[in-house]
Amino acid sequence: MPDFDAMARNMGKLVDFSGKVAAAYLKPRESGEIKPTFGEEAFDGFQMMGKVAESWIANPARMFHAQATLASQLFGLWGDSLARLGGVGRDGTPTTAAPERKTDKRFAAPEWRGTPMFDFLHQAYLATTDWAKTMIEDAEGVDEPTREKAAFYLRQISSALSPANFLATNPELIRETFRENGENLVRGMRMLAEDITAGRGELKIRQSDASQFKLGTDMAATPGKVVFRNDLMELIQYAPTTETVIRRPLLIVPPWINKFYVLDLNKEKSFIGWMVSQGLTVFVISWVNPDERHATKDWDAYMREGIFAALDAIEAAVGEREVTAVGYCVGGTLLAATLAFMAAKGDRRIGSTTLLTTQVDFEHAGDLKVFADEAQIRVIENEMRASGYLPGSKMANAFNMLRPDELIWSYAVNTYLKGKPPAAFDLLAWNADSTRMTAANHAFYLRNCYLENKLTAGEMVLGGERLNLGLVTIPIYDLATKEDHIAPARSVFQGARFFGGPVRYVLAGSGHIAGVVNPPAKAKYGYWTGGEPKGVFDEWLASAKESKGTWWLDWIEWIKAQAPETVPPREPGSGGLEAICDAPGEYVRVAS
């Protein structure tokens, strides 16, 4: 039994912190700092669900059969629960055990099966969710984009309504609250108030204890120097660790949606550090975390002041005009567009390119496409027009919504209801270190890529030049990952076929981040190779060769084959450019 005096005291504290939560949420809205947008964001979801409902209403017989199917399942579950309460199973034999049924990790604790009521709650929830998915999949006369959007919004709704998310319907939470006399709820409410305050009125769910990591010490710690800086980026050159290095330097173009050091998380996971150890002279662009001053910086600016400025700086630093380039995610999309621009101009400064989980064709883009129809883009553009940028929290929330069970509600329950601060996890600390996006850049990306798919259609115009990927004839290493929801492997495969030169398409295991950051010493996932991306993706995969270990080893052999000549190592700041400061520089430290 709980200590009811302690419980009463904690309930008083809970009310006090609830007031702080309300104040943190309301203050920026009352001052006008945050404009209410829920109606605009929710409208699209209701509209998609409405179209699915219309399909079923148009055929009453099918609708009745679907409803009867669900009712039959729920009555069966209820019957099993009543039988367990009575100690007699359906076959008349004594039983108190729950029958074997589908479950998931949200309901893995024994309390969910040990009590008939909670077992019924979670099994009924799963049955209803599966039924709703089937209703969307089997809806007649609904186009595929509407079906995909409806399925996305269903995931948000069903994840939010899970009985695991509520104190009264979660036996683990009830037990924990009684055991701690409600102190878990007080700790959780305190952290909720802190997180809403830190988010300036928006909830920024803490996924990791970022205080345990320091840039330049625990993360982004590969030794190097910033050798160039302009308004849009810093260029970092890393210190060599080998007796000789490959003559052709390597430039990494990371996404500006988040910070570059996902490729330099720590000594054990650092792709950048590993590249240096393989004898590469590595440069990386560290994009500025933009504010209202950068509002007009568009794709042309990111090409000229980013990639082109980096190429000029590399030539000044080490005396080499030709480089190998690596583009990651949207950084790879910009790099691909830049390659088409350079091909049209006869600019041959990039000798070969690696694209990591990069889309150039967006016909079969991932779940983020759900946010990129005309109506939603107009909403985003209006918001960006007022501030000059898209807040980092907006994109972070969008990524979290791709996996709501794992990235939203599991942390909400553990932190705000169980009162347990999250552990220190470098990848999630990086994920929470979000960046803003300039209005002009983000609007160009959404419209030209997600909405109108102009790059592979030969309709994208950059720097006054109509782009044609077919003119890009340099060798390309094109990496996709098997479980990527942001740049699906099928989408990357389709886009790879638009280049005019040789493409080595490689499929790695896992997803958008873990599939890329897969170091040899701790390789968790294998990879598949099967030649150039031709024909149908499923047929390519069926005939592809699976290899154990990381794709990094396959990639470095490909890199060395492109330009095997070696030279003495180059120290950052010892060439034509002086060092400005130590890596990882200053731009990466600017918080959103």
Task: Describe, in plain words, how this protein is organized in 3D.
The protein has 592 residues and is α/β, with parallel strands linked by helices. It has 20 helices and 17 strands. It is 46% helix and 11% strand. An 11-stranded mixed beta sheet has the order 15-14-13-12-7-6-4-5-2-1-17, sandwiched between helices. The mean pLDDT is 91.
Quick structural overview:
The protein is 46% helix and 11% strand. By secondary structure, the chain is an alpha/beta fold. The protein has an eleven-stranded mixed sheet, sandwiched between helices. A two-stranded antiparallel sheet has the order 3-16.
**CATH class group of the largest domain:** Alpha Beta
Poorly predicted runs are none
Helix content: 40-55%
Number of distinct beta strands: 17
Keywords: Acyltransferase, Cytoplasm, Transferase
GO cellular component, one term: cytoplasm
GO molecular function: acyltransferase activity
Protein name: Class I poly(R)-hydroxyalkanoic acid synthase
